[in-house]
Amino acid sequence: MSRKPFSQVSSLQSHHRIHSYKTLYDCDVCGKTFLYLSHLHQHHRVHAKEKQYTCEVCNKSFYQKSHLNEHYLVHTKEKPYVCEVCNKTFSKKSTLNRHYLIHTKEKPYVCEVCNKSFSQKSTLNQHYLVHTKEKPYECEVCNKSFYQKSHLNEHYLVHTKEKPYVCEVCNKTFSKKSNLNRHYLIHTKEKPYVCEVCNKSFSQKSTLNRHYLIHTKEKPYVCDVCNKSFSQKSNLNQHYLVPTKEKPYVCEVCSKSFPLKAALNRHYLAHTEEKPFVCEVSNK
């Protein structure tokens, strides 16, 4: 007697039919078994490579009528499959099933090279390109290549100067969605990147990486004139202004110029009459 477990009663009932049916239909090619002859005939088309069901809108063809019906939803923009967890809708049931893995935290697709796991097979396939060093998607303008097509599409915005991603808080626009997501941290005041040495937190990973140079005492940014080194590129840029006597930061009130932005900010206090620095002894 079979002790196979099932999550749904309908699946168990379908399984019971396998034991109760006297006649089962086996595929001569792959040995797969079917309860109904019509299902076997439908399955045979997979091996025969016949795609007799054709979309009347775009002429794309399919092995099964159910797949064609599902495809039509692409044209009608219908999304009848709803996630029970977050109410997100999908046009395909298979896409909904893959989406559920996000909530269950399951990652069944494992890289054979580094054992990193993924929730979707397509993501695993893209990940393999990291190991093979393949970058199959090439920009037609500058010939720069990318691992993923989505990265290429995002890159094209550099050439077209488009910035389709808009901040809902301040309406600032960005060419990349990742840049918009990082920008949102400014409004939410979130600082998810924490220094393991001093526990100081930052809103961006790049800022954390620059901060680590303080602890490691590294100074990778070197002045071409005097060979003085700095831990941050911004400090090097400010240093360059000293020997050239450039003063690029101009006060909008009185037009006085300064070599450093910090000096301009201090100068603005004279116009606003702000006095942010208070003596702890006399409160003056």
TrEMBL record:
Keywords: DNA-binding, Metal-binding, Nucleus, Repeat, Transcription, Transcription regulation, Zinc, Zinc-finger. Residues 25-52, 53-80, 81-108, 109-136, 137-164, 165-192, 193-220, 221-248, 249-276 form the C2H2-type domain. GO terms for molecular function: DNA-binding transcription factor activity, RNA polymerase II-specific; RNA polymerase II cis-regulatory region sequence-specific DNA binding; zinc ion binding. It is found in: Nucleus. Pfam families: zf-C2H2. The keyword Transcription applies. Transmembrane segments: none annotated. It comes from the Eukaryota. Belongs to the snail C2H2-type zinc-finger protein family. This is Zinc finger protein 91. It comes from Araneus ventricosus.
